[in-house]
């Protein structure tokens, strides 16, 4: 029902960047090898995500817009339902607060399109496309004027979109990403592009980090690979001699999802305490992976907090893993 979807939207979608996050995550879940994101006016008037993933059959299009309809939980997942987040809420929420169109084609099916605007769903129509999915979201929050007021400048919203796309791109180095500003119409202007990386996981991440943070970071970063009681930490962390001015370049992921977590940031700082002056932030891209039962990544759908079952263990892994790598490098 439209009113419930509008309320849920407030939980899932805070701003254009959170819509981008949900749509790109859907593309990645669909197995996309290539994801293109376009936006206009900081995402306020237009967000468009195109992927070459598995697509949605015409019959499933209305389901994709129904609350709690998800293709991603089977019986075995029900126990750790939290790790899958607020399932099946993103598309109905976006369709309740904006004008949403999904155009998609799954293998063995014809292409089709469905639109929903302010919660009103239209019929499925045929559409011509080769494969994959394009989701277009126009006029975010037009149906909820109170939310509309809370959006920041185009520039600030663009910055937030760019940041989340880069974080998602870091977590998926084998996927190609393009980000385009189409505010001035036409094909727009590419503002970020990362080709699919190759090699093993570390090679690919190294290449992607060079692309996103610069070769200066990648060439001055220590490879991190540490493990403790079922928690693994991988990634790259800057040598203390690497200086990025005052800009914060800390990218943290838990089970492949970008997070912002006080405990983890504190642990990163603590690891560098003796080798980096207090006014500088250690630059790092770190991935913690563990059994989903040991962590809750979806405390809240729009916030990227995490709750480890044993926070001390996670903190210990980060501090000792980084200190070990620093010591081995002579710091
Ligand atoms: P969730 O991702 O939690 O399942 P969503 O509301 O984000 O919920 O999406 C609903 C459903 O629509 C998904 O479970 C999936 O089956 C389908 N879907 C959404 N986006 C895509 C996409 N880009 N490619 C293929 N299927 C998609
Ligand atoms: Mg989703």
From TrEMBL:
A GO term, aspect molecular function: mismatched DNA binding
An example Gene Ontology biological process: mismatch repair
Keyword Chloroplast: no
DNA mismatch repair protein S5 domain sequence ranges: 209-327
GO cellular component: mismatch repair complex
Keywords recorded for this protein, A-Z: DNA damage, DNA repair, Endonuclease, Hydrolase, Nuclease
Domain of life: Bacteria
Function: This protein is involved in the repair of mismatches in DNA. It is required for dam-dependent methyl-directed DNA mismatch repair. May act as a 'molecular matchmaker', a protein that promotes the formation of a stable complex between two or more DNA-binding proteins in an ATP-dependent manner without itself being part of a final effector complex.
Family recorded in the similarity comment: Belongs to the DNA mismatch repair MutL/HexB family.
Name of the featured protein: DNA mismatch repair protein MutL
Lineage: Bacteria, Pseudomonadati, Pseudomonadota, Alphaproteobacteria, Rhodobacterales
Gene: mutL
């Amino acid at each position: 029902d439209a009113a419930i979807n509008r309320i849920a939207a407030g939980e899932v979608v805070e701003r254009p960047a959170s819509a981008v996050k949900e749509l790109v995550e859907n593309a990645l879940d669909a197995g996309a090898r290539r994801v293109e994101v376009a936006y206009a006016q900081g995402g306020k008037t237009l967000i468009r995500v195109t992927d070459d993933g598995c697509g949605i059959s015409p019959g499933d299009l209305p389901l994709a817009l129904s609350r709690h309809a998800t293709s991603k939980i089977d019986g075995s997942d029900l126990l750790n339902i939290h790790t899958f987040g607020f399932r099946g809420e993103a598309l109905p929420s976006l369709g309740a607060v904006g004008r949403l169109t999904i155009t998609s084609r799954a293998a063995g099916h014809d292409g089709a399109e469905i639109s929903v605007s302010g919660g009103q769903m239209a019929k499925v129509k045929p559409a011509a496309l080769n494969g994959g999915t394009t989701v277009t979201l126009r006029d975010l929050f037009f149906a909820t004027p109170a939310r509309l007021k809370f959006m920041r400048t185009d520039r600030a919203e663009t910055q937030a979109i760019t940041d989340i796309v880069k974080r998602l791109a870091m977590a998926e180095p084998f996927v190609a990403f393009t980000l385009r500003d189409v505010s001035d119409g036409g094909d727009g202007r590419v503002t970020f592009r990362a080709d699919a990386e190759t090699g093993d996981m570390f090679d690919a991440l190294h290449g992607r980090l060079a692309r996103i943070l610069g070769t200066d970071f990648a060439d001055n970063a220590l490879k991190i690979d540490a493990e403790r009681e079922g928690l693994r930490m991988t990634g790259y962390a800057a040598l203390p001699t690497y200086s990025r001015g005052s800009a914060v370049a800390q990218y943290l992921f838990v089970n492949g999802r970008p997070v912002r977590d006080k405990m983890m940031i504190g642990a990163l700082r603590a690891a560098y305490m003796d080798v980096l002056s207090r006014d500088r932030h250690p630059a790092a891209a770190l991935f913690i992976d563990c059994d989903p039962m040991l962590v809750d990544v979806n405390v809240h759908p729009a916030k990227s907090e995490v709750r480890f079952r044993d926070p001390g263990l996670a903190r210990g892994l980060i501090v000792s893993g980084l200190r070990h790598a620093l010591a081995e490098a002579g710091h």
